């Protein structure tokens, strides 16, 4: 899958279909015609546009947090915290993404993590798994 329908491109960019169309009309995003005549966005065009957005996206720009070496940062709201005697499971929603972190209860308490708190999840790993969506044209 190297080209995407406008609705798919919008979902990947985290914007509305209308925003993708406006960007195309303004020349910010180039559309092409697919084999069936539908307007499509090339995957490389999405990569270019995503590269323009630095600093972790609109959420990170609106709510800047401490600087860190971690490049995989997701700024969002804590939506759930489950604590037991020693551990805590913290869920964060950052745009369309749901991130779950396991940490010590002490750390969650010290950070004051509760639903509705603005926070950032960061990931720095040597192993990252990537998979293709099922049912696609790939």
TrEMBL record:
NCBIfam families: excise. Pfam families: MerR, TOBE. Signal peptide: none annotated. It comes from the Bacteria. One of its GO terms (molecular function) is DNA binding. PROSITE patterns: MOP (PS51866). Residues 67-132 form the Mop domain. This is Helix-turn-helix domain-containing protein. InterPro entries: DNA-bd_dom_put_sf (IPR009061), MerR-type_HTH_dom (IPR000551), Mo/tungstate-bd_C_term_dom (IPR008995), Mop_domain (IPR004606), SinI_DNA-bd (IPR010093), Transp-assoc_OB_typ1 (IPR005116). GO terms for biological process: molybdate ion transport; regulation of DNA-templated transcription. Keywords: Molybdenum.
């Amino acid at each position: 899958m190297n080209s995407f329908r406008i609705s798919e491109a919008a979902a990947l960019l985290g914007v509305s279909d209308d925003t993708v169309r406006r960007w195309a009309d303004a020349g910010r995003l180039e559309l092409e015609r697919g084999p069936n005549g539908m307007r499509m966005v090339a995957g490389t065009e999405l990569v270019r546009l995503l590269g323009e957005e630095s600093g972790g996206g609109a959420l990170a720009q609106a709510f800047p947090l401490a600087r860190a070496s971690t490049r995989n940062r997701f700024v969002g709201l804590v939506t759930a915290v489950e604590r037991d005697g020693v551990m805590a499971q913290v869920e964060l929603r950052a745009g369309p993404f749901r991130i779950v972190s396991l940490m010590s209860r002490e750390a969650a308490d010290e950070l004051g993590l509760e639903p509705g708190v603005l926070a950032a999840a960061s990931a720095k790993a040597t192993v990252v798994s990537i998979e293709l969506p099922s049912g696609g044209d790939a």
